[in-house]
Amino acid sequence: MPHYVVLQEILKEKLLGTGSGNLTSLEKAINNQAAKGYRLHTITTASSGSKGFGGGDRIQATMVFESLG
To answer: When comparing pLDDT for 50 and 42, which is higher?
Structure first.
């Protein structure tokens, strides 16, 4: 029976312009799970508006990892 891990990452969009200012945190989360023997099975995203002064939009990435072992 496969073993799964679910993680959520919040990606903050830049205040000006487009594009996430912290995609490296998403990459790091994926690489950390890969090092533990998991592969990315599914990823979904949802966006929300600005969260106050100085905040850009936020994207919530939900990732499901499946054990390779």
So the answer is: 42
